Amino acid sequence: MSLNVALFALIGLTAIAYLSARARATAFSGQVSGRSAAERISAVHSRPAYYGWYVALWALVPALFLILTWALISDAFIADRTIAALPMDTRPADGIERQMFLNEVRGVVSGKLAGAFDPNADAAVPIYRHVEMQWNLVIAGLSALLAIIGGGFAWLRIKPQFWARPRVERFVMVMLVLASMVSILTTLGIVLSLIYESVEFFRRVSPLEFIFGTTWSPQTAIRADQVGSSGAFGAVPLFWGTIFIGAIIAMIVAIPLGLMSAIYLTQYAKPRARKIMKPMLEVLAGVPTVVYGYFAALTVAPAVRDFAISIGMSNASSESALAAGAVMGIMIIPFVSSMADDSLGAVPAAMRDGSLAMGATPSETIKRVLVPAALPGIVGGVLLAVSRAIGETMIVVMAAGLAANMTANPFQSVTTVTAQIVQLLTGDQEFDSAKTLSAFALGLVLFVVTLILNIYALTVVKKYREAYE
Amino acid sequence: MSEGVIIERAPTDWALPAMQARIGKRYAAERRFRMLGLGALSLAGLFLAFLLWTIISDGVTGFLHTQVEVTAKLDPDVLGIDASSISGPGGEMTLNRANYTAVMNAAARQRVEGLDVDIAAVISDGAWLPLRSALREDHALLGQEITIWVPTTSAFDMLAKGSIDRNAPADTRPVSDVQIAAFDSLKAEGAIRTRINTTFLSQADSTSPELAGIWGAAKGSFLTLLITLVLSFPIGVLTAIYLEEYAPKNRITDIIEVSINNLAAVPSIIFGLLGLAVFLNFFGMPRSAPIVGGLTLALMTLPVIVIAGRVAIKSVPPSIRDAALGVGASPIQVVFHHVLPLALPGILTGTIIGMARALGETAPLLMIGMRAFVADVPSGLDTPATVLPVQIFLWSDEVARGFIEKTSAAIIVLLIFLLLMNGFAIYLRNKLERRW
């Protein structure tokens, strides 16, 4: 709590620093000698607000940095101090016990628990409160001091000839660069965390088995003597399932429907019809995937199974690849349509007009001129759609099964990479088992494949655009 | 030295039947193709209509619930409290601990007397909750007899809404014949009514469908999106400004651009893996907390905002910059005083669309533990919470049939929020955006 108070106090101090420095800078123009008012104003280097910002930043930034650092480390620090203050024999023995002990203490301190089960934890509560209070006060005091020192230092520096604006602008520039670094850091974070955990995984399971093995059953043995549960991490069935649902079934639905929609919208539809149909596709694109998943699992999947049984397929699964793939395909329609729309729009009008002038009907023009000319762009768009489909998670988690089958029968159940990642990481298990680590290896494969697809598709699209420019 | 060759051929006679047939065929092909296009669009539209219709028709009843009237005597001895202890200090605590279940069971037994059904088949496990709220509101009720409407079981609820087929064989439906008879006689007495389900709109998750609510998840979504917005909006706008206005053409700028474009296309579940590995395991942040969910979604939304921001900034004509520079503004002043205000509507539109996408996102939040069963409305940024889409996912997994309408009702709530956000974005785009 006292940290929030410190934060508010800091904001107050900053505001005071800004206002007082700006007032002082406004008074500068009175202090310089000069004949006209304009001359006096131009003798001051920057506008008064910049002097205000300069002092305010000096007051705010160092103190804020201190408070944020403390907020990050305070939990661990206070815990260390509390445990160090306990008598030797009541301290928790190992890491797990320590964690449980601290959870209890924190629960009591925050008022979520009425009392701890462990009497030692109860004893630690007042110590924890005391340490927390004490250190929060110290940090709050220090940050106020820093704000005053920083602000005072800046206050003493400002004079009429002081270049406040370039300094404030340099700060803004640094913030701009720092903000741009966030996306690099994110990419780096993704790549490093995936690689790090995958390396851990490949230390236990050979990469060859992972990439070429055909048995997937990630259950690791609970007891050493258990039969048939050593865990098999051959990911080929998952790759097949992902391709089958995302790149085959979904695309069989999405490509014709998306392409024909785009053709109709761009070539045939009157402006008024376009005005209704385009938002309809946008709504289709805006429906959350979890809603599609629910619909696929509850409405489409039973219908598909009933159909399969009615045509004499006795072993049809209620979690069929067809249900998940078809719904996914419909989800992708707007995406394919808008990519095709862009590509068709980029074909020079002269080609279309020439064909029409020769007497070809619009459909002949579309089939023989526009689509062939736009093909590279359309293919690029389809590749992007595939990359999106294989990364799609909720539909397959809810509507496709978890059975790692290698089958080309769309009425049977297959599983995908994303469904397995969710399955592997949402149970309660220790973090560094081969089972949980395998999810990161799957994630790495997914990341690399979608990356390659995206980069390739974007270069195709770009090259195609340039060809017509 | 070639001379023009004159082909000796009469001009095509388009009126010939053979020619007419060919043209007819071509025109028929034209019509077929056109119909095909219209058919594709209609199919997509039909699917959308079918999806929405299924969900709305399933979900509308989820906003209603069925109540049964009971007469309960708030006997201090049965409750285990007395008038003096509830008014003094700690009275709230005493009120919370009182034995309402015993009072409610007695009242329910009286209600079903002679009906040959167990009270557990009639009143919900949480039927005592209205008793507590009544007593909290008016301490003077202690010792008096009150008539109160309490929620029924999910099975009775479905009976009242007609979502159970009474003619089905008894072992395939969740209620027995005796229970149906009891329901009908209660209904005939006027002791059953269906009302707006305030529990659904004000409570968090529960194991019983008749007590489950959406408010906990909605608040979790709100807190998560708040963090997402606070982080991704400033960082995204600053990045867009840097890349569009100041970035020198060099390797680092190229790397930034490539990484933003790639992040925009990375599957969302990968961001969940990042959140799990970095925020939870490396930094030790709390599982299931809105702050971690918000951080993860912020990284995911960032590229959307950057890309929208760059487009908006690019569309501000260079003449504005030249004019500002010409009257002596510094490069920073040009951007912050002139370009940014003009680009802001476009940036805001992009931000809202990005936030709407984050609101519907499920997979990355599953990775960071937001699928936990959370029965309390989250109170802060670091308390366990769930969000609307994850709540939908959790309910869709429930076996109890009463959850079907709850799931659809939750979807309706989510879709309404999405519609509002996107509608607002479109409004902003139409009202504020300038064409140069």
Strand numbers in spatial order across the main sheet of chain A: 1-2
How far apart lie the N and C ends of chain A?
61 Å
* Strand/helix succession of chain B: HEHHHHHEHHEHHHHHHHHHH
Main beta-sheet strand count, sense and barrel state of chain B: 3 strands, antiparallel
By DSSP (H or I, 4+ residues per run), the number of helices of chain A equals 16
Task: Tell me what you see in this structure.
The complex is a heterodimer of chains A (469) and B (436). Chain A is 77% helix and 1% strand. Chain A is mainly α. In chain A, strands 1-2 form a two-stranded antiparallel sheet. In chain A, α1 runs antiparallel to α3 (48-85), α3 (48-85) packs parallel to α6 and α15 runs antiparallel to α16. The longest helix of chain A has 41 residues, at 164-204. The mean pLDDT of chain A is 86. Chain B has 436 residues and is mainly α. Chain B has 18 helices and 3 strands. Chain B has helices at residues 17-59, 76-79, 83-87, 91-97, 100-111, 129-137, 154-161, 177-189, 198-202, 215-246, 251-265, 268-282, 290-314, 318-326, 331-359, 363-367, 388-396, 403-432; strands at residues 64-73, 145-151, 192-196. Chain B has a 3-stranded antiparallel beta sheet with strand order 2-1-3. In chain B, α1 (17-59) packs across α18 (403-432), α10 packs across α17 (388-396) and α12 packs across α13. Chain B is flat, with a radius of gyration of 32 Å. The two termini of chain B are 59 Å apart. The model of chain B has no long low-confidence stretch (mean pLDDT 86). Chains A and B meet through α3, α6, α8, α9 and α10 of A and α1, α10, α11, α12 and α13 of B.
